[in-house]
């Protein structure tokens, strides 16, 4: 085992794509990647990023948490063994005597690991060709071995005839016009021969110019130019219309087929990749059909017809003219295979860029809420950089190929000049013949160069065609019956007998038997992962049971047309999905031609009418993409109104009230009471208290029905349901106690705050009174007696001996009584 230092530019994210995984692999110049597996667990079963790559020469790996790459040369005794246990897969590299290395991964990558083992087997068998990095993204369910993906062949374009067949007559007319137009463009060089030999050269030798002949020759040149223009316009117009219609049919057919595929198909696909296939890839095919295919056919006709004319004029000079053609053909053949591989790679890498956009833009609120803008920008930069690196490798090849073809054509032109001058000097051909040859050869080599450039466009279109037909070739795992049973009326009886279902290699539903009577309300209860939502998906026929049957009114639902069956089912999900459009359009989604009265009636029954009227434009208000601008409870009530409007016989409620508050739940529950009345109802509820009105409860555990009965019956049994209900009741009681304690704490804090404010106000009032008190002593208010009386503050008489009265008069101030004589200096009376 050898160690190879990793590329310093190689960075590995926590969630790494196969094509990005081998972007930093230390590949040799002649080394091609056959398959790659991004491992996501280390030896301690902690999440960590690593990668294992199989090439046409060796196995290279970067272990989780390591900085160096390991490599093992291919040997016939090497093999990769896969095992899994408890949701963890192990991939072991072994030789004849011992284990060389092992890697661990989550079972979501089981299919990629199978692809890696298949790639090694093909490499050892000598069948591994030049494949592209990232080809191990399996389209098959986990656990199934997948054949190694081959690059797109040019022959894939022939499959487009399926879409061209309806327009075969316009295509034939366009081909005839193209043939005539090409012939018209070949007339002018032929007319240059008499113009040179019979007009210009004789004139240089002293003969007069034949004006009539010149007029006819110039008229012929003008007529051929006008005819070529008219035919070219008609040809281009007809074929452009046809190609646009073929492209439109291709998009429509692909989208319609995509809608018919089961949920299982979408579970393993990225939204951005599917959008790129239907949008970008069909546009690429359309451009090829409308422009480049037309040019290619014109070039082929021009080369064939020019070669025929050259051989008719002079076979020897024609052979010299066509001498570079085998070299150019060989070069095109060599480059085509590498271009085919490169364009396959570019298509997949570009889908990585669109995947980042498709992930980030719908989830922009989550991105901003967790402040992950820089991280998502880094993901986009990484995907965009990978796209740039792949494109640069392809451009290096193309930049060498195109000038080489031009060089060969220039050399061919020089050979024609040399050979032509020699033939003219020996009088084997005339100057007019050489001039015509040069004119034809210029057009011949121009078309040859154009054909070489079309190689890249053709390979792009072939790659796009392959990716489109990967969708069209995929058969739905929920097929339509060949002879569907007509469904006239529905009573609503659902009978599930011995139903089994598996996701990949994991059993989810096992031997389930359940009989639901018409109009019965059945609640599904169980821990997370017990199979409740899977059972609902099976009843809706989003998936088909792997064993057993599900019957509606005694008829296996697999014998019913999907449209006839599903139009009798109303579905209310935990996370209601609303489309961009008005409130009315979303309510009427299941019944597009519903009247406004029917829409309003459904909204009233769903208790949505009042809040809809409060919106700026009422029922015509736009809700935004995915229902942005409305609360969770409002979106849920609109989804209930949508289900009410179609008046289904079977109703599916999947956690319809789990993500709303208690007050909103009451409003939704009122709407649900209207919705379930008279309908066969299957409900999953997070809060078991909401299922008390159910006629029957079915308890699931690990895909098996363990209990069945009414709420009181199951409580009395004190089994699985009782434990669930008791645990939830304790949790709700603890939550209520916590809320009551918090409310009491808030009230106590509020009362304390009010008491502090009252005390502060009283202290402020007393301080104000204290500030105003001195002013009251200096200016005492008048004394009031009886009404109307006013008493001034007069000196009170002093009482001494009997009969004596002394007045209390103020003492004189200093200086007072001056000029009064001896009285001013008398002593004070005692």
Tell me what you see in this structure.
This protein is an alpha+beta fold and 830 residues long. Helix 4 crosses helix 8, helix 6 (211-260) packs parallel to helix 13 and helix 10 packs antiparallel against helix 12. The N and C termini lie far apart (132 Å). The protein contains 22 helices and 22 strands. The chain is elongated and about 130 Å long. The strands form six sheets. A six-stranded mixed beta sheet has the order 14-15-16-11-17-18, sandwiched between helices. Strands 1-5-4-3-2 form a five-stranded antiparallel beta sheet. It has a four-stranded antiparallel beta sheet with strand order 10-9-12-13, with helices on one face. Helix 20 (662-676) links the parallel strand 15 and strand 16. Residues 1-19, 127-149 and 783-830 have low confidence and may be disordered. Helix content is 52%, strand content 15%.
Largest sheet: 6 strands, mixed
Shape: elongated
Average pLDDT rating: 75
Span between termini: 132 Å
Structural class assignment: alpha+beta
Rg from alpha-carbon coordinates: 46 Å
Instruction: Give the DSSP E fraction (strand runs of 2 or more residues).
Output: 15-25%
Q: Level of helix content?
A: 40-55%
pLDDT < 50 stretches? 1-19, 127-149, 783-830
Count of alpha and pi helical runs: 22
* Strand tally: 22
Strand order of the largest sheet: 14-15-16-11-17-18
Give a brief description.
A hairpin with a 5-residue loop joins strand 2 and strand 3 (47-55). The chain contains 22 helices and 22 strands. Helix 8 packs antiparallel against helix 13 (431-472).
